[in-house]
Design brief:
Layout (H helix, E strand, L loop, with lengths): L1 H32 L11 E11 L20 H10 L6 E4 L2 E4 L2 H6 L2 E9 L6 E9 L7 E11 L4 E14 L7 E3 L3 E2 H14 L5 H7 L7 E2 L1
Antiparallel strand pairs: 1-6, 1-10, 2-3, 4-5, 6-7, 7-8, 7-9
Length: 222
Amino acid sequence: MYIGQSKKTGTMKQQIIMAATACLLCSAAWAQKKPAPAPLPAGNVLKRTITRQVFVADTTNYSTRRLRPEGSDTSLAEFLFQRIRRGQLTAYEKNNNWFIPMTITQLLDLFKHADTIEVTDPVTGVKVNRVSIYDFSFDDIRYFSVLEEWKYDKQKGTTDIQVTAIAPMHEAFTGSHSQLPMFWVKYADVKTYLAMYAAEHPNNNLPLMVWSQYFTQPLTKK
């Protein structure tokens, strides 16, 4: 009687062990076949294009905040323009979200602008047309426009910012004092030259100003 019970008990233990082993094997097989997690849907990442105007002139320290090399007559804007003329960089005009390459002739036309304006003769009081010639100087550039791509990941709570293009700004010839881009250069093309410039001017360069003015300048959504 006891021998039979012992055999029966041993058989049950073997069955339990076999069942447990089968479950483990099934679990392992299921784990191997389990698909990788699906990527986050596009709706989880918010994107914006931001345009910022970075001020590069400081009236409290006028001689050192114009992005001008020490002991040289070449400002950053002129430094970039020289490389465009040499064919080392491509200048673009921006039309909505499209960048259209500019010719050297188009660029040179920026420096010689004549405009006909209506003025009142102070003696006779008669309104007359007068041709006004605007003299351009790279020293008059007080702003750079910075185009940035902002991406916010709602799942991770992180924000990624990438500068995609920069442009020196000049005052509109209409006399409205509004600032307009002279030409755009893509950041991927110009970053080497910006690094060269920053190496010579570690305390006075555009990347440094882009960073510092994140916290002082308003943002413009585009």
